[in-house]
Design goal:
The chain is of the alpha+beta class. 56% of the residues lie in helices and 13% in strands. Its cofactor is Mg(2+).
Length: 225
């Protein structure tokens, strides 16, 4: 059994594992886990921020914020939930089970947050007892995964910046291969904001494929802005 599932107060763990659908079908089975989920979300955001602040003293606020988002996004928290065995223990209603609840990333991530909140309460709100468990999970995420996820929405974020000024013309990406072998090419991309038909250069990026080069260019543009 994973350390995060070792509780003194078993009723807290039971509540953390109980989805609203289960309570709806079993009214006498206590509370669902949504309040614990709220608490766990706040704790994970704090611990991930603290972890990254210590791990990367050279990085600025924007980069740390993006990395924190990557560590505690729904997809990653769902993986943590499976890693610690929550998918085998969640209490779901029959409807949620039939809808594939045991494999639902949103449900898994929410349950993980609830368990984090419950563990914190079970240990008399002593976050020092929770920190090493959570940091071990954070450390298990490969660096390239964190970097990749932190850039996932860079194009969308740049698009939002463009639109914030009332410009409805999409950014222009100009991508070309600049080197590498046929099986390991290197692409470079320039990104332009188009204002009244005029192209304004905003950033540049490189990647192993056109998609990665475009994301890197958008990230560079956001940094420049």
């Amino acid at each position: 059994m994973h350390d995060i599932l070792i509780f003194q107060d078993k009723t807290l763990l039971n509540q953390a594992l109980t989805h609203r659908s289960y309570v709806n079908e079993h009214p006498g089975e206590g509370e669902h886990n949504e309040r614990l989920e709220f608490l766990g979300d706040a704790i994970l955001n704090f611990l991930s921020g603290e972890y990254l602040y210590q791990l990367h003293p050279e990085k600025g606020e924007d980069e740390l914020t993006r990395r924190r988002s990557a560590l505690v996004d729904e997809k990653q928290l769902a993986k943590f939930a499976i890693e610690v065995g929550l998918d085998l223990r969640i209490r779901l209603g029959q409807g949620a089970i039939l809808d594939g609840g045991y494999n639902n990333p949103n449900l898994l991530s929410s349950t993980f947050e609830a368990v984090i909140g419950a563990y914190y309460l079970d240990k008399n709100c002593n976050i020092a007892l929770l920190r090493p468990i959570v940091e071990k999970l954070f450390a298990s995420v490969p660096e390239n995964i964190v970097v990749s996820r932190s850039n996932v929405d860079s194009k969308n974020r740049f698009q939002e910046w463009v639109q914030s000024s009332g410009n409805t013309t999409p950014p222009k990406y100009v991508t070309r291969q600049i080197g590498g072998q046929s099986h390991t090419p290197i692409f470079e991309c320039d990104i332009f904001e188009v204002v009244n038909g005029k192209e304004i250069w905003r950033g540049k990026g490189q990647g192993r494929n056109k998609k990665d080069a475009e994301k890197a260019a958008a990230e560079n543009a956001l940094d420049n802005l």
